[in-house]
Amino acid sequence: MMNVHIGLNVKNLEESKEFYRRFLSITPAKEKDGYVKFLTTEPNLNLTLTQVDEVQGNIINHLGVQVNSKEEVLMHKERLEKEGFFAREEMNTNCCYAIQDKFWVTDPDGNEWEYFYTKQDLNTEDSTVCCVS
């Protein structure tokens, strides 16, 4: 098994831990002073949060979870809206050389996460810019 690992610096560990607990629908696998780790199996992800004094800039363009259908996108959107998240929806959008159905949520430090389904790949140049605001 392979896991994608993402290590994020966060300003407020408790606030970020709560965001990701609700976003991923799981409790942390490990909690230490200034550190939290989440392990998911769908998708295979090792996400760590490390508290720092200051988070500057948004070095990450965005993060995402690719699913297998529009129905899965809508299921996760509904789940996260029930958790109180604002989900910015973009259905049938031309993004990153593909037609996609997706929605976005933003974590406490401004990192944008998308759940998306790729309906069709494209070769056109007008789709080179991703739909991140």
Write a structural description.
- By secondary structure, the protein is an alpha/beta fold.
- The protein is built from two helices and eight strands.
- The protein has helices spanning 13-24, 70-82; strands spanning 4-10, 30-32, 35-41, 44-51, 63-66, 88-94, 98-106, 112-121.
- It has a four-stranded mixed beta sheet with strand order 1-4-3-2, covered by helices on one side. A four-stranded mixed beta sheet has the order 5-8-7-6, covered by helices on one side.
- Strand 3 (35-41) and strand 4 form a beta hairpin.
- The radius of gyration is 15 Å and the shape is globular.
- The termini are far apart.
- It holds the Pfam family Glyoxalase.
- InterPro entries: ArsI/CadI-like (IPR049789), Cadmium-induced_rsp (IPR052393), Glyas_Bleomycin-R_OHBP_Dase (IPR029068), Glyas_Fos-R_dOase_dom (IPR004360), VOC_core (IPR037523).
- This is VOC domain-containing protein.
- One of its GO terms (biological process) is response to cadmium ion.
Outline of this structure?
InterPro entries: ArsI/CadI-like, Cadmium-induced_rsp, Glyas_Bleomycin-R_OHBP_Dase, Glyas_Fos-R_dOase_dom, VOC_core. The protein is an alpha/beta fold and 133 residues long. The protein has helices at 13-24, 70-82; strands spanning 4-10, 30-32, 35-41, 44-51, 63-66, 88-94, 98-106, 112-121.
